[in-house]
Amino acid sequence: MAYRCRISSNFSGDNDEVAPGFRCCCCCCCSVAAAIISSAGERTASYSRMSDLETPLRPKREKGVVDFLVQFRWIFVIFVVLPISYTFYFLIYLGDMRAEVKSFKQRQKDHDEKVKKVVKRLKERNPSKDGLVCTARKPWIAVGMRNVDYKRARRFEVDLSDFRNIIEIDRERMIARVEPMVNMGQITRVTVPMNLALAVVAELDDLTVGGLINGYGIEGSSHIYGLFSDTVVAYEIVLAGGRVVRATRDNEYSDLYYAIPWSQGTLGLLVSAEIKLIPVKEYMRLTYTPVKGSLKDISQGYMDSFAPRDRDQDNPNKVPDFVEAMVYSPNEAVCMTGRYASKEEAKRKGNVINNVGWWFKPWFYQHAQKALEKGEFVEYIPAREYYHRHTRSLYWEGKLILPFGDQWWFRFLLGWMMPPKVSLLKATQGEAIRNYYHDNHVIQDMLVPLYKVGDALEWVHREMEVYPIWLCPHRLFKLPVKTMVSPEPGFDLQRRQGDTPYAQMYTDVGVYYAPGPVLRGEKFDGSEAVRRMENWLIENGGFQPQYAVSELSEKNFWRMFDASLYESCRRKYEAVGTFMSVYYKSKKGRKTEKEVQEAERERAEVESPYAEAV
Ligand SMILES: Cc1cc2nc3c(=O)[nH]c(=O)nc-3n(C[C@H](O)[C@H](O)[C@H](O)COP(=O)(O)OP(=O)(O)OC[C@H]3O[C@@H](n4cnc5c(N)ncnc54)[C@H](O)[C@@H]3O)c2cc1C
Predict the structure, then answer these.
(1) Are 178 and 272 in contact (CB under 8 A)?
(2) Keywords for this entry (predicted)?
(3) What pTM was computed for the model?
């Protein structure tokens, strides 16, 4: 196969200037201007520096009508999606405010009523006539990117949309008891003024507690607390038969407690969760540190930013409260480490306070990139603005949706309407644009053992060439039972950098954007790239969060995830025949109810259907 020397897309901050000395030494790379995704004209691709990594040379691709629609989608976004999004956010905010004035006693009473309705609805289901159970949430409302094709088949919906109250903030137990539709923006608005926060606050305002538990949730504190579901102390679940149970790690439902995360709501319906709170201070003292060199150098710099080489991982003096890194090119990254700081400290003379949440401020990933030019710097960010720092620009996806959204004039004039609601973008894209994005765009997270981050970065560069890349570490705990997602066997004997005897350090390698070949107008097979990524993950002890499009066959799905506990809970709690299986729910492609039910029947009949795969 022919190979080319490496190219990288260079996001150059506020002004998007082409880097001085920009030269392309490979003629086909010069066609960056022919980029087919709308932002490509804005986003200048350049060689940052030569590297020994190589990427395959791909043939050119012909443009079609959909390219044109995607290129000018911003017109629709500005005049339709943004105003409606803004109105939605405002109405939701009013609804939350109304809910918050209710007493906790009233909220508990309302909650009990709502649970009764769910039980009643489940009992109304006639298994011989009705489809399998799922929530009534419309696929486009969810933040995730998978196809949710199961909602095209006959199904029995249970409406959980009213479950959006924070039932109780228990300062003594340091627990927030919340309903599943409570979202991250709502919860930080309530807890941060109390100097409290969920131990893991997922970044985007719209992400819901139910989705983050049953699906996947992570943030920059996950190197201490694990994934979002690891911070849950108890689940209140309505089981298939309508029984309501409270599952904790040490009561009679402890197997269910461990099986819920990653199960996508296929074991029961979550109606509330008790989640760990931590004390926080008003500000985050954030240090931006540039790292330059090869992708292996970058991965080592990233590891050193939060994982002491002497393995003293539980020492708060050596391990920051928050960590993330952005890899901007194959040679350049910025690592950010944060520590909570009081307002007295932040306001001390000489300290810089940056309110990154203001609508006119540069987008966060571009602001952080300035460290590559000016070197390491420190600033103080109000804690809540820090938690939601990527919300306004949807990480860097905002640049694809609104190519000029990061320019100062846009930010000042219309930045207050950002971000567009992901749900509205999904609702208005139509089938053709959706398929186009599947082929020409990547939104995937690769969860890999920390010591393999360098390999993962090189893989992404070779196969996808997507920049920036988001790096966020997270612990995978050694649990008393093997759950769908577990650390590598024997990790505790080897104890590499970041590991402790009780948890292996992993990292989320977040790959979101148009791949380099697409920006250069070359052919790129998105489905094939995802398939190869999934195989790479299976071979390297990694996992793929199922909010993203998946090409996994059933056999490979169960090579990536462990089926044993999940399957035994499916049988024990009579979920088989009532809820779809997690594979069928996550799978891409249309499936009929008959297919789903046949698979369910087989599963119920066969003792261990995954014997071959596990
Ligand atoms: C643009 C974008 C940005 C993202 N940013 C982040 C981020 O910053 N941090 C992060 O951690 N993740 C992020 N994600 C991924 C996100 O974590 C997942 O989509 C996650 O599953 C939450 O999405 P949701 O709240 O819309 O849940 P949904 O997609 O609605 O739900 C996820 C699953 O849980 C099930 N479920 C939900 N509620 C219940 C319930 N009450 N009972 C039973 N089952 C239920 C649903 O049926 C579904 O299978 C992002 C994804 C995208 C596309």
Answers:
(1) yes
(2) Membrane, Oxidoreductase, Transmembrane, Transmembrane helix
(3) 0.87
Question: Is 272 strand, coil or helix?
Answer: strand
Ligand 1 centroid – CA 231 distance (Å)? 16
**Residue that terminates a domain, selected from 427, 442, 469:** 427
What token pair was written down for 34?
């022919």
Span 461-481, average pLDDT: 96
Asked whether the predicted pLDDT for residue 586 surpasses 70, the reply is yes
**pLDDT per position as a tens digit, 90-113:** 888 888 888 788 888 899 999 999
Q: Are residues 165 and 202 in the same domain?
A: yes
Mean pLDDT score of the chain, rounded to an integer? 85
Distance from residue 104's CA to the centre of ligand 1 (Å): 27
Q: Residue 213 Cα, ligand 1 centroid: separation in angstroms?
A: 8
| Ligand 1 atom showing the smallest separation from residue 264 Cα | 49
Q: Are 290 and 376 in contact (CB under 8 A)?
A: yes
- Which of 143, 206, 472, 550 most suits a substitution to test ligand 1, by most atoms within 8 Å of the C-beta? 143
Q: Read off the tokens for 136.
A: 């009534």
**Mean pLDDT (whole number) for 69-83:** 84
Write the burial class of residue 538 (CB in 10 Å: 0-12 exposed, 13-18 middle, 19+ buried): middle
> Which residues are within 8 A (CB) of 172 and not within 5 positions of it... i.e. 6 or more apart?
none
Better pLDDT: 252 or 606: 252
CATH number at residue 213: 3.30.465.10
Does 263 score more than 90 pLDDT?
yes
* Residue 611, pLDDT score: 37
| Closest to 496 in 3D by CA, of 269, 270, 234, 299 | 299
What gap in Å lies between CA 437 and CA 6, rounded to an integer? Answer: 24
Atom from ligand 1 closest to the CA of residue 218? 11
Last residue of a domain, one of 382, 409, 427: 427
The 10 Å Cβ neighbour count of residue 258 is: 20
Domain range for residue 376?
A: 283-427
pLDDT in tens, 20-75: 333 333 333 333 333 334 334 333 344 344 345 677 777 787 777 777 777 888 88
Please check whether residues 419 and 296 belong to one and the same domain: yes
**At 424, which amino acid appears?**
L
Half-sphere exposure of 315 (CA within 13 A, CB side): 11
In a domain, 82, yes or no: no
Query: 7 CA to middle of ligand 1, Å?
Result: 33
Hunting for tokens 């020492």 — which residue is that?
A: 315
Going by alpha carbons, the residue nearest to atom 30 of ligand 1 is: 142
Q: Report pLDDT for 155.
A: 75
Distance of CA 549 from the midpoint of ligand 1 (Å): 13
Pocket test for ligand 1, best of 134, 204, 441 (most atoms within 8 A of CB): 204
- C-alpha to C-alpha distance for 565 and 472, rounded to whole angstroms: 27
Ligand 1 neighbours by CB, cut-off 6 Å: 135, 137, 142-145, 160, 180, 202-204, 207-208, 210-212, 214-218, 264-265, 269-270, 394, 397, 422, 443, 547, 585
